[in-house]
Design brief:
This protein is 62% helix and 10% strand. The two termini are 30 Å apart. It has one domain: Butyryl-CoA Dehydrogenase, subunit A, domain 3, CATH 1.20.140. It is elongated, with a radius of gyration of 26 Å. A hairpin with a 6-residue loop joins strand 1 and strand 2. The protein is α+β, with helices and mostly antiparallel strands. The longest helix has 37 residues. The chain has a five-stranded antiparallel β-sheet with strand order 4-3-2-1-5. One of its GO terms (molecular function) is structural molecule activity. It is found in: Cell junction, Tight junction; Cell membrane. Keywords: Cell junction, Cell membrane, Membrane, Tight junction, Transmembrane, Transmembrane helix. Belongs to the claudin family.
Length: 223
């Protein structure tokens, strides 16, 4: 029963990590980090991301323009873009974590008799997912913090439109939490059970050997 529970935790951890890794990549390129609705023109909606700014109009649709230079970005997005350079690296590490953790799964027959190596692979994969999750949460939380500060800034007149949270921030939070939770499940599965999976195979093989001796009417020579 404990063995089935451990395999289930590994499977759920891999799925959560894969989901978080894909969503973190989507967050990086999605141009909806901040939204701006104009009260004077409700048919026009502005969105800004890390690479471009977009305006959505009812008649024209969405039109986007890339930032001309890195210095043209707002301060909070400029800092987040620097941090997201590490996020690209974490996406690569997340992919590496998927490969490493895959070879460490108990349901994979490769390396059945090297349980210590498979356990270390699971732990390493979990650490890689933790790193990817934290690196995804830092820039998203920073932009959200700056957006809240600007929204409640009393020095800005109330008539001036305020930026609000975009969809990419929520996707980024979900991605980071999925990566963290997936890494936790993998490490829990690797460290929570000390009985190796291979011992079960040895027990089954020994039982089959004993049965063969009984069928032949002979005694086990090792006894």
């Amino acid at each position: 029963m404990a063995l089935v529970f451990r395999v289930a935790m590994q499977f759920v951890g891999i799925l959560l990590s894969l989901l978080g890794w894909v969503l973190s990549i989507i967050t990086t390129f999605l141009p909806h980090w901040k939204n701006l609705n104009l009260d004077l023109n409700e048919m026009e909606n502005w969105t800004v991301g890390l690479w471009q700014t977009c305006v959505t109009q009812e008649e024209v649709g969405m039109q986007c323009k890339d930032f001309d230079s890195f210095l043209a970005l707002p301060a909070e997005l400029r800092i987040s873009r620097i941090i997201l350079i590490l996020m690209f690296l974490s996406n690569g590490l997340g992919f590496l974590g998927l490969l490493v953790s895959g070879f460490g799964l108990d349901c994979l027959r490769i390396g059945e008799r090297q349980q210590d190596v498979k356990r270390q692979l699971l732990i390493l994969g979990g650490i890689l997912f933790w790193t990817a999750g934290v690196t995804a949460l830092v820039p998203v939380s920073w932009v959200a913090h700056r957006t809240v500060q600007e929204f409640w800034d009393e020095t800005v007149p109330e008539i001036v439109p305020r930026w609000e949270f975009g969809e990419a921030l929520f996707i980024g939070w979900f991605a980071g939490c999925s990566l963290l939770l997936g890494g936790c499940l993998l490490n829990w599965a690797a460290c929570g059970t000390q009985v190796p999976l291979a011992s079960g195979h040895y027990a089954v093989a020994e039982m089959q050997t004993q049965c063969s001796y009984l069928d032949n009417g002979t005694a086990n020579p090792s006894v």
